[in-house]
């Protein structure tokens, strides 16, 4: 607690994760600690804060804020956030529906997963379903964006 109160982002995120869930008495603490850590750049806390806003866990439900935090985490390769961004673009609502953008984010999540088994079956099936909806030209544009990402990412 001392480290978190002193501004240590990892400690704040750890407390945010500890309090995260659906237990009513923990919601305010989850929001507080995840919010501090998310604003400090912790991608796990950004993902949890997005979920807090999306589900309205102790705060008023705010899909735009949820998207904003998921997007921030997705840019830094948080796979769950990338999946939520893909779904947001596929379905529209908070953002304008854009299947090509959805395909980009689900592709980025799928290929950046690095062979992680958790959720890969679902992500792979979702990836295939989104790609089937694209024209060949759209698939090529997505592939080019992913190729550019791969070329500009340090290894």
Automatic annotation (TrEMBL):
It comes from the Bacteria. This is TPR repeat protein.
């Amino acid at each position: 607690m001392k480290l978190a109160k002193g501004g240590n982002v990892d400690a704040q995120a750890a407390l945010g994760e500890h309090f995260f869930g659906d237990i009513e008495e923990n919601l305010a603490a989850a929001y507080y600690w995840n919010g501090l850590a998310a604003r400090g750049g912790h991608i796990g806390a950004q993902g949890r804060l997005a979920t807090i806003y999306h589900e309205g866990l102790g705060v008023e439900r705010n899909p735009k804020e949820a998207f904003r935090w998921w997007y921030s985490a997705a840019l830094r390769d948080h796979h769950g956030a990338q999946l939520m961004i893909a779904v947001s673009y596929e379905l529209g609502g908070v953002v304008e529906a854009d299947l090509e953008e959805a395909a980009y984010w689900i592709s980025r999540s799928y290929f950046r997963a690095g062979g992680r088994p958790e959720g890969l079956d679902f992500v792979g099936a979702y990836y295939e379903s989104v790609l089937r909806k694209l024209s060949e030209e759209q698939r090529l544009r997505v592939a080019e964006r992913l190729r550019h990402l791969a070329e500009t990412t340090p290894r």
